[in-house]
TrEMBL record:
It comes from Gulo gulo. SUPFAM superfamilies: Sema domain. Residues 1-103 form the Sema domain. This is Sema domain-containing protein. The keyword Acetylation does not apply. InterPro entries: Semap_dom (IPR001627), Semap_dom_sf (IPR036352), Semaphorin (IPR027231), WD40/YVTN_repeat-like_dom_sf (IPR015943). One of its GO terms (cellular component) is plasma membrane. The keyword Glycoprotein applies. Keywords: Glycoprotein.
Amino acid sequence: MHEVVQPVTSVPAFMEDNSRFSHMAVDVVQGRDMLVHIIYLATDYGTIKKVRAPLAPAASSCLLEEIELFPERRGQPIRSLQILHSQSVLFVGLQEHVAKVPLKRCPFYRTRR
């Protein structure tokens, strides 16, 4: 359970300086022309990074969003991540409660007109 996950390719799908990831969940979504893997990574300081996996072996990943569940409780460790596809949500287990995060968070971001 506490072993390092080795990358399938010669480089990891996502790296970030000064960050450690404790849990991971992966969603596969239909893009315009292909299936895209979306990786949810729990950080050691209590946030979730939403990352698009590389589209090709030589390509790089893309950080889409960093989700801060409870800004007032920043630093609370995440104990589990689980995707429930039937409801399109990510369940995040914390020490004292469970948070439900929608996988599609477009309403949180408004388009400028």
